Please model this.
Amino acid sequence: MMTGPVPALRTPCVVRRCLWAMLLLVAMTLPARAADTILVVESYNAEMQWDANYKEALQEALGKKYHLEYFQMDTKRLPREQHAAMADKAWALYQSLHPVLVILGDDAALKLLAQRLGTTATPVVYLGINNNPREYFDAKVIRNITGVLERPILKRNIALVSELVPHVKRALVLFDTDITSQVVRQETFEGKSQQLIGGTLVELKLVGQWEQWQAEVLKAKDNYDVIFLGLYQALHDGGGKSVNTTDQVARWTAAHAPVPIFGFWDWAVGPEKTIGGLVLYGRDQGKAAAEIALKILAGTPPERIYPVTADRGKFLYSRKQLQRFHLRLPASIAADASYTD
Model:
């Protein structure tokens, strides 16, 4: 006959067996997770349409076979002195995940992480890079990094505006003061604030404060015939608070622009935003980066894949904004144009 203490003696054994089974399951899962994880480090934040667009393309191409883990460095909204700390957090996540591949979105991530990742055997693919990658790492020494360049077609876009706006003589190009904007000034404008492009005198202004940005827009008609909306996501107000929470800047700028306003990226075009232009798409960057990632994961070493430039741009316009400024697309552009509305 069984006595009372017997079940009590068996209970710890049952618990121990359950714990061992759970630990075994975890041990079996961890290597598999590391083997199929891709770490995506975003320079910016999830709310940015640019990030959302390239991540969508990455997910479509890689998500069925790999788990994509995202880290947002949030460099557009955080003060510059905090960027290095965010890079440290991204590095710590990399070390804990042991991913099969790393994708770095935009210049800040590559600038702050290339040297550390270059000491590892993990392949790295970048996207959205405006600067020359050699500014961030020596490709002769670091052989595990390659990717996709972003070349904003500012000059061609500006030159085309004369086909829409008759007698255009002067143009204002507004950018924030973030790293990408600095690169645009250095690479596209050769470090100058003014340039003559296709007969149009173009002035580039890098603005850090929201109130100054508003003032530049409101008085634009005094000196300019058109405005080009560049990057604005790093703008802060007078109190140091980021205004990059929604499309507030693009919508306000378009609504108050006293002259026709054009854009360089697809996220800046719409019935409540800019007229449009020859724009770049975040999806194209994500798609091109995914293609490189798949080649690497199939066995091609990164050093054998030369950096590529994604799509050279597409014509995208808002019918509402064209009508607002009484503009008509010439047949040569209209034949290839898409519309947001």
About this structure: Residues 154-279+314-339 form a domain with the Rossmann fold fold (CATH 3.40.50.2300). The CA atoms of residues 5 and 315 lie 81 Å apart. The chain has two domains: 32-150+282-309, 154-279+314-339.
